[in-house]
């Protein structure tokens, strides 16, 4: 009888979760249809503020540059190529043009790959030994479940890609530099050049140490997570919830080929994914801003005694070998909601503008999606001369980017908290409920993985699945028979779920996230020539 009751209770929990998800998903679909009723941009190219300069001619500074791009990482290189392909004359200033060597920015979600195709940059993942990624595998307490991306409706080439970050960036830089109207220069930008509150260009030091100024009607700052220019253009509230400890496992076969692996370990998740045909990246999340010392051997001891016993046995030997090899690196995980100060003549993009926990690998997808939005906004403009009019027009960028950016940002922050172990029993119940919910398959896994992959960037769908997990967890607690203790844990579970997701949504902006069509800038179109 107990088994029957337990089985019946599980069905009830699933039914409740399904009903709630269906309601929210219907609301999400209705909302997305309403958001499509947007005033279109002018059909013919128009000038902002009536500059009246012909196509391809610059209006600012020396007249030879339309846009200055600060930084040539993923965002800067992709942006330079995109604007250059549209006929803009672009001057890119990058601190170091040698191949970067990073332990993040190595996994591009399918949604990001679709944006790469849209920008004409899909060949940048070729000839770098990039690996196709078809989904994720979750591991918890000796059990595992495979979650595949819902790619059935897409071309067979569409999938995630994982690679060495530096190789990918070098390919992007080469692609940008191949355009005759894109100038790629090594130099360190020290400050923005401002006149009467309008950014006119930048001051920078060349590779030889010479101090120069560059001028353009529009300066776009993409100088990464360590940006020294963002304070002039936004209100940065940077949080560092944890650090990643990075290792490379060689000649290692993951349990599920072509899948990222997430181990729900104690105290926080461990990631594994291929970055070449012979290498697997391991990222161990360490909560807080302090990590064990690498120099005195504390880190190796921590990895062997705390982390190694929790990883899948198939990769244990390769993990120990990577520790013994000694190539251990660390990097702080930053999150920062977008809080721009609209400034005439300047714009922030990439990690300089907006960051989220890298657990979900969504950073490059957000950056590439932002570039598509900006390209579409700038395309109708003949020139960029009237800085104040252009600034007012580009306020729509901050609203139009929200569906993709806020969904990925919120999911990253919420999943990190749910996937991390906690002394709170209610939080641990939520963690187990999440694993079991995703293990149900069907809509229960396809919905969340579509959000994670950037294929379905709908905030309402995210909220629906998040609370469906919470209610599923409460349903499990009520079976086979509810007790006062279990009911109290259920109440705390719902409270904990609210405490996780609502602050993230508040930071993203409720109105911009869920009701972008009510924001006046959403409908802003370029002003026609007078």
UniProtKB/TrEMBL annotation:
Pfam families registered for this protein in UniProt: NAD_binding_8, SE
Cofactor dependency: FAD
Entry keyword Flavoprotein: yes
InterPro entries linked: FAD/NAD-bd_sf (IPR036188), Squalene_epoxidase (IPR013698), Squalene_monox (IPR040125)
Top-rank taxon: Eukaryota
UniProtKB keywords: FAD, Flavoprotein, Membrane, Oxidoreductase, Transmembrane, Transmembrane helix
EC number: 1.14.14.17
Entry's Gene Ontology BP terms: response to hormone; sterol biosynthetic process
Catalytic activity as recorded in UniProt: squalene + reduced [NADPH--hemoprotein reductase] + O2 = (S)-2,3-epoxysqualene + oxidized [NADPH--hemoprotein reductase] + H2O + H(+)
Primary location class: membrane
Enzyme class, UniProt record, top EC level: oxidoreductase
Family: Belongs to the squalene monooxygenase family.
GO CC terms in record: endoplasmic reticulum; membrane
PANTHER family on file: SQUALENE MONOOXYGENASE
Keyword Nucleus: no
Residue ranges of coiled coil: none
MF (Gene Ontology): flavin adenine dinucleotide binding; squalene monooxygenase activity
Protein name: Squalene monooxygenase
Function recorded in the entry: Catalyzes the stereospecific oxidation of squalene to (S)-2,3-epoxysqualene, and is considered to be a rate-limiting enzyme in steroid biosynthesis.
